[in-house]
Amino acid sequence: MPAKSLKPLPSRKVTIFKIKNRRGFAAVCLLNLTEGSTPAQAYERMVKAVRRAGFELRGSVPRAKA
Asked: Rounded to an integer, what distance in angstroms lies between the CA atom of residue 8 and that of residue 25?
């Protein structure tokens, strides 16, 4: 089976924010929502979720919003 070609997606499309009344952070991108205890963990989980949709995130972890 040939490798799936992934479309590039800039990391600025990902929004990371602190979850109110809970511990941790969440990331939202392309109708995907992931959670993690740190912004980096939420972003890494988003990389996997977006890859399943046929996209590849490029760039570093964006800043978390308060």
From this structure: 24
